[in-house]
Design goal:
The radius of gyration is 53 Å and the shape is elongated. It is α+β, with helices and mostly antiparallel strands. Strand 2 and strand 3 form a beta hairpin. Strands 1, 2, 3 and 4 form a four-stranded antiparallel β-sheet that branches. It contains 13 helices and four strands. Helix 4 packs parallel to helix 6, helix 6 packs across helix 7 and helix 6 packs parallel to helix 8.
Length: 336
């Protein structure tokens, strides 16, 4: 009999433990606490739908808690909307926070548009905040040159507001900064002098603002203010100096080319002179042989040969006298 009582106790303990384990598993699988929170908040949620979320591998808290928050804030939302957005990879909490902020600020923003903005990769809550409270973005120091060649450096602060309608597919802040920088460069470049820009820097912001630079972007430009402006280098003078230096180098190169051409011509002429001298020497070497042949043939006599030798000696003497007088600086006088 005592052994029977021990077996019964063991069975009761095992059944109790199994029941506790089953209860823990049931409560872990079926979020009863979350269902109670939703019902107490006035949100109609079926407990079987929570079980269905578990089966679809969706954490019920990531859907139910934003749903409770949104409905308590006065939004019209459904569980299927939030679960569908979560399954699409969206941030349900961020979308609901954005809808609440837009509702409080009287901004017309539907759940579908907010979900599309979120799925596009943009922070929809931050966009709603920027619609209520504009954001200031600052351009880097932009350098431009006025018509008189003086460099102007300017920095601008751009006040922008998010455009909910163009958040999907609209360009971002980098495009705004690039367009504003281009507008500043164009405006400064069209100024007659740098002093005109320094006297009225607000003309830069007015002209740039009137160009509609926010077209096709996710923002609306409210104002463009010049935060800093300064005078830089005299680029016009520097360009003239660089041009003059380039012209000088070109002239030097051309002069060097002419000098090289002249040297080449001189060398060529020297070569021609040497060639002519060689021919003269060759011809002179043939003279004695020609004289000897003429003597043998009887074409000239001995006296003719002697007279020719005398004339040649006389010519060499005159050439020698001329060379001496030229070296002494006295013009030569040739006696006939």
């Amino acid at each position: 009999m005592p052994q029977f009582d021990d077996t019964l106790v063991v069975m009761i303990v095992v059944i109790a433990i199994a029941a506790i384990l089953l209860l823990v598993l049931f409560l872990n699988f079926v979020p009863v606490g979350l269902w109670i929170s939703a019902v107490s908040a006035g949100v109609k949620v079926k407990i079987f739908s929570l079980v269905g979320m578990r089966l679809r591998r969706v954490k019920p808290a990531r859907v139910i808690n934003p749903l409770i928050k949104g409905i308590k804030a006065g939004l019209v939302l459904s569980q299927n909307q939030l679960e569908s957005h979560l399954l699409s990879g969206g941030r349900v909490d961020n979308v609901v926070d954005a809808l609440i902020a837009a509702h409080r600020a009287n901004i017309d923003l539907s759940f579908e548009r907010a979900a599309a903005i979120d799925l596009a990769g943009r922070d929809v809550f931050e966009a709603v905040r920027m619609s209520v409270m504009p954001k200031i973005i600052q351009t880097p120091m932009i350098s431009a040159m006025a018509a008189n060649g003086i460099e102007i450096k300017a920095m601008a602060k751009v006040t922008v507001r998010a455009n909910i309608e163009r958040l999907v597919g609209g360009a971002g802040e980098d495009t705004i900064l690039a367009r504003v920088g281009e507008g500043i460069v164009t405006t400064i470049g069209s100024a007659e002098s740098h002093s005109a820009v320094l006297e009225n820097p607000d003309t830069i912001s007015q002209r740039v603002l009137n160009k509609g630079l926010d077209a096709g972007t996710a923002y609306e430009i409210l104002s463009i203010d010049i935060a800093d402006i300064d005078v830089g280098r005299n680029i016009g003078s520097q360009l003239q100096i660089d041009q003059a230096e380039a012209d000088k180098r070109i002239a030097q190169a051309k002069a060097e080319e002419r000098r090289a051409t002249a040297i080449a011509r001189e060398q060529e002429m020297k070569a021609q002179v040497e060639e002519m001298r060689a021919k003269v020497v060759e011809a002179e070497a043939q003279v004695p042989q020609a004289i000897a042949d003429a003597l043998r043939a009887g074409n000239i006599g001995v006296m003719d040969h002697l007279n020719m030798q005398n004339k040649m000696a006389d010519t060499k003497m005159r050439e020698g006298i001329s060379d001496i007088k030229i070296n002494l600086g006295t013009p030569p006088i040739i006696e006939e």
